[in-house]
Design goal:
The chain is built from 9 helices and 11 strands. 37% of the residues lie in helices and 22% in strands. The N and C termini lie close together (10 Å). The protein has 2 domains: 139 residues, Nucleotidyltransferase, domain 5, CATH 3.30.420.40; 152 residues, ATPase, nucleotide binding domain (Nucleotidyltransferase, domain 5). It has 304 residues and is an alpha/beta fold. The protein binds zinc ion. Zinc ion binds next to loops. The site of zinc ion has 6 residues, from loops.
Amino acid sequence: MTSAIGVAMTEHIVAGSLQEDNGQMTVVGELSRFPADAAETEALVGVTTSELYEQLASQILPLIQSQQHRVATVGVAVPGVVRNGVVEDAPNLTQIKGIRFGDELAAVLRNRGVDVPVHILNDADAVAAGLASRGGNLDRMTRVWTLGNGIGYGRWPISDGVWEGGHTVVSLDPKERFCGCGGLGHIEGIMGNRAMRLRFMDMEPEEIFAAAKSGDARCRDFVDLWHRALAAGCATAIHLGGPGRFYFTGMNIRFLDLKLLREHLEKMVRMSPLQSYSLEILPSEDAVSVLGAGVAALRAQREW
Ligand SMILES: [Zn+2]
């Protein structure tokens, strides 16, 4: 029987075991999580890479040791551009930029007596893979926006390319400079949690959205901009890749108003063959990312 370990490293680290059940991979047993407090969103910022490897190994090793079956691979989802095993950029976890993160982690595990390949992939791609796998739709295109500190755009099947949809330019205003990557006018510079803190120095994101509800004009304008930015990102994805289903997940779906998003999107996509899209909010579920990381790793190894 095939088994794998899936790990998602975003604002926190979650890891779990996957096993095949009736031709489908499923997450079995408890997920391990660091930090334990889900409200802590900056725990990994500034942690050194060797501390990250230690933390990951301390979560992965017990999972491997508790498996009765051979673990074929470990899949690790990371927040950044991943190509050919290298994290080419990671604006929200800068310490892993330029590193062959999977190979390095595999070496750390080997030093602890466990020889297993480690496959890395973009965190939003892992969510798309997990959703596709859970729905039995691994043969269909799935696209997902993850709304967190950064804005991720994930696709399954994973295809060659960069796909940094969160850095789609949606504004030509030179004052739009809050993106974690430093680029002007990006979706993440408007919608990202950290970008919102930089824009409203004296307010937390939840306070901004609450103030908008109670009529504060500046906050209301911003909430509208926030939704228009996401609509623009979807519109661009539709104009390039066609209509279809978009999922939204991540901690900040709590701010997302689908009706408002749809109103803006309808004004941006006017060609009738492109209007058959659908929009769906999915509560953040660590198990989906863990599943997707493991499934993508197995597919990359051609083990499943
Ligand atoms: Zn950017």
